[in-house]
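Allow me, if you will, to draw on your knowledge of protein folds for a short while. I have a record of one protein: its chain in single-letter code and its fold written as discrete structure tokens. Could you please explain, in whatever detail you think fit, how the structure tokens follow from the sequence? The record follows directly beneath this note:
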Amino acid sequence: MAIKLTNRAKKDAYDAKLRQLLEDYCQILVVAADNVGSNQLQNIRKGLRGDSVVLMGKNTLMRRSVKLHSEATGNTDVNNLLPLLHGNVGLIFTKGDLKEVSDEVAKYKVGAPARVGLVAPIDVVVPPGNTGLDPSQTSFFQVLNIPTKINKGTVEIVTPVELIKQGDKVGSSEAALLAKLGIRPFSYGLVVQSVYDNGSVFSPEVLDLTEDDLLEKFANGVSMVTSLSLAISYPTMAAAPHMFINAYKNVLAVAVATEYSFPQADKVKEYLKDPGKFAVASAPPAAPPPAAAAAAKVVEKKEEPAEESDDDGLFNLFD
């Protein structure tokens, strides 16, 4: 016979489990669980089984366990979770890649009907076309000002209609119409709200950054540091090459304007004195035009010495 635990025993067991998870894991996804059913949550647990653990619970119990764990271990970093534990949220403890876990969680979204009083998370647009409803159902469309026509004994929507806007509450007429059309406009699942990683908390959008994005942001940061360093004449690793080049340009300008010189300026000063010498030395020999090349070949052929014939040899022998 199973022993039924008291509420106090259940709270103690939950506290021990959460504190052990905080001890074993340093990466946590804080997820919103609005409109997520128990079967859907069970499927998510199965999909994440191995590297991740999903833990739901009351916010007061979670905050209490986090505080007790921080006091007992001296790990004050976990206190950064406290401001995040508000609303219908849960925790996903993981040792895997945060991006992969977040993508896996996003797979378990299911379609849901538009219930009355629900705040629409997206815009709902009714597409044009045949609805399959008989003409007696036109009252729903007339209430919502949806243009229709009767085609082959059924109601047909003429143009696409924006039925519900994002952020608006679903009314009874909209919910009834969508139910009759068999449209389930919304999809719900666990939504990652924040990411906790070794004491740091950041937005889930960071997980979508690629290496190219990071390199671009790093390059922009280096460029800003370089510009600031050059503006205030403060040497940094980023600005040092530019400072050396600018200093060389300044010294070179002084050398060109005066009799002072140094090895790196000698060639520049020589070029300024006689640019033509460098142009002749560096210019490749010009190729002859096609007509001149053809004429040269003809001349070469004409100047070739004639070969001695065998007849001339024989004549000289018997002469």
Summary: The chain has twelve helices and twelve strands. Residues 298 and 307 are 18 Å apart (CA to CA).
